[in-house]
């Protein structure tokens, strides 16, 4: 019974990730199709970054919480720890910015 519950939870997580991935692909194709550089402000665990890395040449994640940034850095992402109210980038540094949680 425990194994069955574990498998069901894993399936639900996979379905959730697939639906998020489809959503992010749609967002990218609608709004960021011609962007060579993207910044994800408030990136958290980086769900958008994992999809965007296949679409843009430069993808950077920003978050105030350092823990998910460490993991994302291990996956090869460029990340910056900062507060969304003060971003350490010059104006027009990116072709597009994604910040759905702000």
Low-confidence stretches: none
What does the main sheet amount to?
4 strands, parallel
Q: Which homologous superfamily in CATH is the superfamily?
A: Vaccinia Virus protein VP39
Number of helices: 3
Structural class: alpha/beta
The level 1 CATH classification is Alpha Beta
Name the helix and strand elements from N-terminus to C-terminus, one letter apiece: HEHEHEE
Give the CATH topology: Rossmann fold
Number of strands: 4
CA-based shape: globular
CATH architecture: 3-Layer(aba) Sandwich
Oligomer: single chain
Count of discrete structural domains: 1
Strand order of the largest sheet: 3-2-1-4
**What is the terminal separation in angstroms?**
41 Å
Give an overview of the whole structure:
It is a single chain. The chain has 102 residues and is of the alpha/beta class. The protein has a single domain, classed as 3-Layer(aba) Sandwich (Rossmann fold), CATH 3.40.50.150. Helices cover 44% and strands 18% of the residues. The chain contains three helices and four strands; from the N terminus they run αβαβαββ. It has a four-stranded parallel beta sheet with strand order 3-2-1-4. Helix 3 links the parallel strand 2 and strand 3. The longest helix is centred in the N-terminal third of the chain and has 30 residues. The mean pLDDT is 90.
